Amino acid sequence: DAEGNTPLCAAAIQGHGVIVRYLGDKGAQIDLQGILDKNGKTPLHEAAHWGYSDIVTYLRGKGAHLELQGM
């Protein structure tokens, strides 16, 4: 988007769990450095920040790493 977020990051920020699951199930990269948003956060970080526990649980189940940080 205009702020540099990938579709997965944007869905996580907005709490759109159905979209997050769709993208993840279709093979979207969950937490590679290349998908960090403009603040250096992964979709997992954003979902946790905004309190979307269902998205956090899904992303953790897909192998998202808690310790990954922006460079």
UniProtKB/TrEMBL annotation:
ANK repeats: 3-35, 39-71
Top-level taxon: Eukaryota
Organism: Collybia nuda
Keywords, comma-separated and alphabetical: ANK repeat, Repeat
Name this protein carries in UniProt: Ankyrin repeat-containing domain protein
Key word S-adenosyl-L-methionine present: no
PANTHER family (UniProt xref): ANKYRIN REPEAT DOMAIN-CONTAINING PROTEIN 39-RELATED
